[in-house]
Structure formats: C-alpha cells, structure tokens
Specification:
Layout lengths: L1 E3 L15 E2 L9 E8 L8 E6 L2 E7 L1 E6 L2 E9 L6 E10 L2 E4 L3 E4 L2 E4 L5 E4 L3 E5 L4 E5 L4 E6 L8 E2 L2 E7 L2 E7 L2 E7 L2 E7 L4 E4 L5 E8 L7 E2 L13 E3 L19 E3 L4 E4 L6 E4 L4 E6 L5 E9 L2 H12 L12 E4 L6 H14 L5 E4 L41 H10 L3 E6 L2 E2 L8 H13 L22 E2 L5 H9 L2 H5 L5 E4 L18 H22 L5 E4 L12 E2 L7 H16 L5 E2 L12 H12 L4 E3 L22 H8 L3 H15 L1 H14 L4 E2 L1 H4 L13 E3 L3 E3 L9 E6 L3 E4 L5 E3 L2 E6 L7 E4 L3 E5 L5 E2 L18 E5 L5 E4 L5 E5 L2 E5 L3 E10 L5 E3 L2 E9 L2
Parallel strand pairs: 30-31, 30-39, 31-32, 32-35, 35-36, 37-38, 49-55, 50-54
Antiparallel strand pairs: 1-3, 2-3, 3-7, 4-5, 4-8, 6-7, 8-9, 8-10, 11-21, 12-13, 12-16, 13-14, 14-15, 15-29, 17-18, 18-19, 19-20, 21-22, 22-28, 23-25, 24-27, 25-26, 26-29, 27-28, 33-34, 40-41, 41-42, 42-47, 43-46, 44-45, 44-47, 48-50, 51-52, 52-53, 54-56, 55-56
Length: 871
Amino acid sequence: MQLVHMPCGTHYFKDFGYERYPYRPLLGEQVAVQLMVENAAEDVIPVLTWEVDGTPMPELAGAKVEHDGNRLYFRFELGSFEKLSTVCYRFAVQGEAGPIVTKDYSFEVLAEEALGEPLSLLRGYDFAYALFARITLVFDWSDSLRVYTLDPVHKVEGTPVSSVQAEIAEGISLAIETAPFSWSVKRYTEKLTGAAGGSYRLLVDGEGSVHRLSYRTDLACEHLFGFGERFDQVDQKGSELLVRVVEHFTRQGSNSYLPIPFFLTERELGWFSPVQHRLWVDARDGLQLTFDTPQRGILTEERWLFGKPQQLIAKLHDLTGRVKLPPKWALGIWISGNGWNTQKETLEQLQALEEHQLPATAIVLEAWSDEQTFCIFNDAKYEPLDQEKPYSYTDFTFPEDGKWPDPKVMAEEIRKAGLNLVLWQIPVIKYEWGGPGPQLLSDEAYAIEKGYCVLNDDGSPYRITDHWFRNSLLLDFTNPEAVKWWFGKRQYLLDDLGVKGFKTDGGEFLFDDAAVLYSGETGETAHNLYPVQYVKAYQDFLEENGVEGVTFTRAGFTGAQTQPVHWAGDQLSEWSEFRAQLTAGLSAGISGIPFWSFDVGGFAGDFPSAELYLRSVAMAAFCPVMQWHSEPRHGQFYHTGRERWINDRSPWNLASLYKDESIISIYRLYANLHMNLMPYIYQEAKHCAASSRPLMAHMVVDFPEDEKAWTVHDQYMFGRDLLVAPITEEGAVRREIYLPEGLWHDLFLGGTIEGGRTIEYDCPMERIPVFVRDGAVLAVNLADSGLMGSQSEEAGVGNDLGSYKQLAFLCFGRDSFEYADDLGVQLSAAAGKVSGTGISEVLLVDCSTLDAAGGVKLFERYLAAKKAAVE
C-alpha cells in the first residue's frame, strides 16, 4: 500500500487527486488536502493529524471521493484560517503490518498586502533603491534596465532623493517618483512601460517574508510575442499563461514543453527574467506579472531591453548563452518510427530509402534498448556488470535469433548508407512494474547508495510521482559523479557504434517542489532547469568525445539555444495540430530558439490523410530539420484504431495505405528540394548562430516596421531570403499571402510580384508558396541532370554532404555574392566572375531569364545558366 500526497501537484491544468488546495492558502480561504491510496482494501480509512503553530488539532478522517481501479482518493477539509499561521500535517493508514505514516507536510497561511509608500529613495551613479517595509526595489541602468527586488535584510547605500530622472539608453529615460510611488520608461515623450506602486501586491507570512509578488505594468503595445514555444497563438496579447515546463500529450493548448520568460513588442521593447520559480503572465489588460519568490536574497529579477526584434533576441542570448551551431547533417532529413524495434526492420528502412531513391541524413532508433536500462540493446546477453566500470561492447553477446543480432554491423550499414545514428534516451532509472531484471535492480541500488538520484527533502530517493515512468528514479545531473557513472554505461555507444546523437526525451518529471538536488536546488526551482541540465550533460558527453553530434530535445527552458536541436513534441495527425505546430515553430523562434523541428504529419493517433501528410511534408522541406516520426504501434495512452498495425509516417507506408504512389513522388520532390538547399540552409544556419536569428523566423524579424507583419502568423522567412507560406487548411487550393514591400520572385512558377500587398495564390499539392527576395543568391547542390523541383529520381543529389554534385548559385536579380562552407570552399563573385578557393568551377543560374538550352530546369522552366571557372 502506498500513500501519495504532493501539495503542488504534477500538472497545474488537472486535479489528479493528491494535491493541496490552495497550494499557498491566504487568510480566510478554505483549505483542503487530498490523498491517493494505492493498492489498498476498499474499507481503508486514512486519517490526518495536524497542528497549527504547534497546537494539536482534532484528527480528521478522510472522505472518500473516488475509486479508480487500485487507487482510492480521499479529501480532508481543514477549513479556513483567520490569522497568519504555520500548519503541519501528515497522513496515516492502518496496513497489514501496522500503521503506514507519511512524512510531515507544512504550509504558511499568507496575507495579501499592498506595497505601501517607500520609506526612502536612494540614488547612485547608475542605480536607485526604493526601500519599502517588505522589499527593496532596485533599478540598475548600467546595461539596459535591470529591475529586481531584495528582501529588506540587505543593506543598501545611496544619496536620498525625492525622485529620479535618468537616461538609460539613447532616447530612453527612466523616471521614479515617490509621492505616490511609480516608475516609468519612456522613449522621448512616449511611454513604453512602467508601474504604479498601487499595482503591487505581496503575499507575506507571519514573519513578514514575501512568498509571492505581483504587479501590473502599463505596457504600451498592441502585440506581445514570445514566452517560448507556444501552440495556441504567437501573439499572447490578451492571454493568461504559466511560464513553466509542462508535458501535455497532444493538443497542448496554452501549455509549453519549452517556455522562456522573454517577450518583445512592436514598440522596440523587450523583457526577460532569469526567474526559476513559477511565473504567471496575465496580458488581458495591460500586463500583470506574478512571481513566486525564494523569500531571501533576490526575490524577483527582470530586464527591460530596447531594440528591434532581432536585436532583442541577440540581447537575450547575451544574457543566457550563445547559439550553438548543429552539425550540417543534423539540418538534413531525419527518419524515425517508434515501432522499429529490431535490426531487421531498421535495415528495411534503409532498403526502402534506396528503393524509392529518397534521401535522409539521420535515423532515430527509439525502441532499441531493453526498456529497462536504456543503455543496453534489447535481447543482449551478459553477466552482471560492474557498477564501478564503464560498459564495453565486448561485455555483451547478441543472439542470432534476437532482436539485434549484430548492432555493430547494423551501425556500419547505417553509416555506409550515409545516415547518422541517433538513439533515444530518458533520464530515469526505471521502476519496472512487470519484473525488473538483475541489472536494473543493481543500477537502482547503486544509484541510491551513492546518492546519484534526485532526493526527497527527508533524504529518501525521489520517485516520479505519477504518469509516464511513474515511481522511477530521476538521475541528478548536477552531481558530477552521477554524470560520470551514467555516461560510463553509454561510452561504448560512441566508441563502438559511432552514435552521433541522442534524442533526449522527457525531462519534465521533477514535479515535487520539496525535492532536492546535489547542487542544493529544490524542485521548486529545478523543475524548469532540469531538462536543461539533462540535455547539457548529453551534449557535453558528445563534445568531450570529439563527436560531431547533436541532441534532439522537446523540453527546455532559458538557455535552450545553447543545446540544439528542439522538436515540438507530441501532436495528433490532425489539421488543427498541424497549425499548432506552425505556431509553435514561430513562437519558439521569436523566443530565441533558432533550430526547431516537428513530426511530419503528426505523431499520434490514426494516420494523417494523404493531403495533410503532403502539406506537412511541404512545410518541413523549408524547416531547419525535416523529420517524420510515429508513436508506439499500440497507441501511446489509448488504443489507436486504424487499418494497419505498422503506423510509420514514412512516405512508402502512407502510399501503401492509401494505394497512391504519388505520395512517394511528391515526397521525393520536397525531400530533394531540402537536400538541394542544404548549402543555403547551412550558410543561413551559420548566420543564425552568429547573429541570434531564428532560421525559421516570424515575419517581424525581417520586417519589424511593417505593421501588417505583426498580424501575419501563418507564413515565415526561412533564412533571410525565402518567404514560405504553408497550406494548413484542409481542402485549400488557394491561400492569401502577404508580401512585404519590395520585389519578390516566385520560386516554383517564376516571375516577379511587387510586395506591400496581400495576394491570392493557387496551391496544388505539389506546390507550396515560396517567394525569394529580389537580389538574393541561393547556394544549392544541383543534380547532374540539372533538374531541381522535380518528382523524378534524376533530380536527387543523395545525402553526401561532403561534396557537391554541382555547386550552383540561383541568382534572383543579382549575381554578386560571398559564399563559404565547411568543406574549404570560399568564394566571392561579381559581374559574372568568381574567385576563391576549394573548388574549380561553379554554375551561375540566372533565374530571371528563360533559356531552353541552359541545362537547368527549375520546376517547370528552363533557365539560363553558365559555368564559371573559379579564379
């Protein structure tokens, strides 16, 4: 029998029956606590014993509220409290071997207070302190504007003043007044932001410590972009949201795997907070920010930033870490399916790629391991392994009739096919309900003995409270010895199999605020930080071993741009989810995530329709990573009814399902396009890493002064030169596209269109609206056939990223350019002449001039082209 109570809950959006309500009670609020009892007889009656400020209170018996299989749920009503108090409680139930008693839980009854008027205002050279009874509000304008609050224990010094007027940047001024208290930021005479003292509210305990601070800023804007990867909308003006890592299976809505406390507006104003506690945002009327606080030290911290969107993202990265450039292969085409749980089926994917002449640069194996240790191949045979020694490939034997008879041969076949091997990971020592193997038991015992896992506040091992991987241990990546032990078990994967990356799934499991990490952090702050710590450890592992590798991650937080690549997590194969994926990509980019991907056609549920699949493929061709994947074949959280067991989102599986070979042909067109564009994509990726630009960028990144651009959320710039407008509505054969000012070239059809207006555009299945900026020069790898944008197998350039079939430059109104790659090619071109090193000849293609004899066919038109010797 197990008693489960987690006051903070696991997911804020649902009551799971073991939370406390409210989590942080106020004076006069009714308080209830809930308990879940697992594996108990139906007649069990748990009791709650408790004290208020040390005084024992009458014992309470739980009222049964629900019975769900082997789970019983009980509720205890504590009533309301009329004075600030400390309440302690615990649960007990009579078991077969005697009473079972939980640890002690406690909470402070809080009171809401106004900020009040300042006791004094002190000024220094580039800072000011506003001292109040409960907090000190600090303004530091030495670099942009940093506003933070301190507990009143901190001693501060400065010259007493009645007000402050300071220039904090060119044309930007800060004013602080004391009667009544307010602060404001203006650009010349135009107010950008600020707050009145009367808008501040504090939640304080009996000792006067502040547990929560909120205030409303007079934010002058029409648009509010950011807050991380968001699935509901790009513009969060009018929304309420929580900036907290949340795993929500499909239909994410306002939840985010990858929240970031950052936003920007059309008024050249941005905001960032290095917050680690919970942060609530209410943008329905102005902007209200609510911070949970640590009670001591720096309670809250904010940065007000100034500049255009691209500059603001760069400033965010200055504060949180520079962008890491992924290896070129990671920007190619990834294939994946959870159902590939054997060597035979894995190699069949390589054969299918060859048969259909389809390129790919990476293959992800999710179901490769024993599903217990997550570092040993399924069906491998071995003697008990020494916990003090790294694993070696020779520790294992692989039965010929097993699932993976020869992983080394398989890995070599993958390498010879030109793909990079990526393996799925999860940061847990699994609790195996169906009977743990001896190695898993040994791992668990050793990790507990050494303190390698996250702990509870009483020193016992923290176990994942509920849901996915329930009861499993969570590795503590802040413990260097734990990290060394963990990756010692995975070293052979790099050394002997040449693994190039890890799909670092999960990371959202640190639910309990009271949990404790080796670093001293508690779960309250580490919940958001844990996925960053986890992924960084894997990235460091690859780098320390000299592997040109990558992590592929869904969860993250501040600083995630230092750990590429991220994908959108789990969505159903539905049109609404496809639109949510596009929204997620644009919001992630504007929040500083430069390299992002999604599951083509969706991940879960029944198959996508052929139309949805191909529209999704088309968008993916113009995304940083083109990737398809599918959920476990039995359905992740429910039985998935469908026509066939194999649910892969591969083009050949969809073609077979729908008896439509055109699915493969159209997929080939888009896959080949992505590979054609790899020189452009990698060149733009390098620029993104250097400049902090998102590779898949909302229109406001390039057109911040265009008011219309701030309202268009269904098209984007792929790199600096390609405007992409995906088709995300079922049955659509036309769509509206907004072209900003300037001349635009139609990539698929040719011709030019003047911008500054909205156009209607026809969109058959084999076409996605893509427009090229006038004056752009696109570096491409062109097939020997001269075909690009064709369903023909002859249009393919394969997946060899170490050479070119033909290095060509598609010139749209200009033929001068600079180009440098990772292969030693460095070129400069002007007036039809090319100079440089690393290659002897390139092809210059004039995309504005038709010429049947030119030898280059771009989609359905022949273009003028000439070979140019490199001088």
